[in-house]
Structures are given as C-alpha cells and as structure tokens.
Amino acid sequence: MKAAVLTFPGSNCDDDLLWAVKDIAGADAELVSAKSESLDGFDLVLVPGGFSYGDYLRSGAIAKFAPIMTALKQFADNGGYVLGICNGFQILTEAGLLPGALQWNTSLEFICEPEPLKVVNNQTAFSNQYPEDQAITLPIAHGEGNYYADADTLAEIEANHQVVFRYAKNPNGSLNDIAGLTNKAGNVLGMMPHPERAVEALLGGTDGLGVFESLINATKGAAHAAN
Amino acid sequence: MFKAKIYVNYKPSVLDPKAEVIKNTLSRLGQTNVKDVTVGKYFEVLLEGNRDAVDQQVDALCDQMLANVNMEAYRYSLEEV
User: Fold this and answer.
1) Chain B residues close to A146, C-beta within 8 Å
2) What CATH class does A2-218 carry?
3) Exposed end of chain A (fewer CB within 10 Å): N or C?
4) What is the value of ipTM here, to two decimals?
5) How confident is the model at residue A224 (pLDDT cuts 50, 70, 90)?
6) According to its UniProt record, which protein family does this protein belong to (chain B) (predicted)?
7) Which member of B21, B66, B70 has the closest CB to residue A100?
8) What residue numbers bound the domain in which B16 lies?
C-alpha cells in the first residue's frame, strides 16, 4: 500500500501526517504537490490540515481548483480511499466529494483542545480497528469546524450511516454532533479532529493511530506494496 | 463592458454566529429596534461581452466559486460601464 499526502500552499499538517502514516503506522508514503496532475501508483490519498491558499474566499474554496484536484476526483470516483483532516475536510466538501459545509464555530473562537469523541460506525475503511462505540480523544484545532448540511442532506447522511465520529461534548455547533463522516460510497472521509496528532504516547495519546491502522487494513493486498 | 455587483449571504436556514454577535452588540449599545443583521460578501467583477453571455457567465462563477451553495445564496446585478 502506498499513500500520497497532498501539499497545498498553506498546508501545515502535511509533515505530521506523513510522519503518522509512514514512520509510526509503517505504510509507504510520500508528499505530493498540489501542482501535480497525477495520483498514479497510490492506493490512499491524505488531504492535510492547514490554511490552503490562505483560506481566501472560504476555507478550501481556492484549493478545490488546484491542478491535483482533477486527479483526486477521478481517484475517488474509482473507489480510491481519501481521508481529509481539518482543512482537508473543508477542501473535500468544497470540491463536492463530501456533502455539506464547514462554517464558523458558534463561539467564533479558534478552539485548540483535546476533544472526546465516539466512534459511531466501525464498519468503514477508516474505523475498522476501533471497537464499536469506542470513546476516544483527539485534538481539534479550528475556527471553522461547525458542520452544516440542509435537513434533507442530513437525513440522508444518517439513513446511510455515513457519520463515523461524533463529538461527546459538541464544541463548535456541528449539526448532529458530527465530527467526521464519509461520502455515500464510503471511500471518502472528512474529519475535523486530528488523528495524526494522537499517534504517540509522547504527544498525549495514541487514539488516532486506529484511523491509519484501519486504512492499512482496508488496503491490504493493494497493488502498490510497501518497499 | 459590464460591472457585475455580486452579493453572497448565508441561507436563512444557516445560523450566522458573526451576525448574531453584531446584532447583540447593537442591542447593548441601545439600538433596541435592530431586529436582524445579515453579514455577507460583496464582489465587483468587470467583464467584457454581451449581456446574455455575461449574465450566464456570472451565474456560473457564483455557483462554482464565489458562493458555496451548500450554505450560501447569491444574487447579482449587471451594470453597463
């Protein structure tokens, strides 16, 4: 299995994400520039947090037009696994790969805290290594993480069991306490909490490691084996 | 040449925390008859072309970029300059 970690101008979690998936979880992985136009040879794409293109206009609104996005849409349409974290989640909603949008936190504060969550669906490529309803703690660090979707979209998301992570104590106003959800097909996940910041005891916890172990498990036997 | 004046706002179903803070602050300042505040974005875009073509083009660029139609609505006017 080989993972691509995308790097946009203004990404600031790309190196952390590479460290988590490669050095800690043990997958083969490399950084891929947003200016690249190909994702050939990759089995997993990770879209990191940060402030892509300065968050101009809206978070993720400019990134969705980056050269790599055409390849990313094709990759996702072909069933490839895509994980967007924080700004990566915002980019995936702007690009239409995930439903809904991320709006300003109701408190209008940038919140940087460890946040208790529940894994409400462990039947996905991103969560299969967590026990059902597992309580975990992951750091959040965002000003615009307030998940919004209209009532019909929200009902469809719930009916399809697309919510994977819910906040235990909703910090930002997200509808239905949604912290992370997949697309309808289940191969694209976006989440505001940072699993890559919780993969070593030294960093305060290892509750995020399960996300990367789940993806490694889901892509076992993938075409591009680790060297 | 046309000047498009474009307004982008949250849809009424979306609670805008910034607008709420402004409304509450105005109330605190004694402006008690202020019943609602809407905060949005305003763009001016200059385009060459005939009115029909420019109209379609502005609609498309609002839909694809200037507004996130999942949570925002847009409206615009065209002024010949």
Assistant:
1) 17
2) alpha beta
3) C
4) 0.85
5) low
6) Belongs to the PurS family.
7) B70
8) 2-80
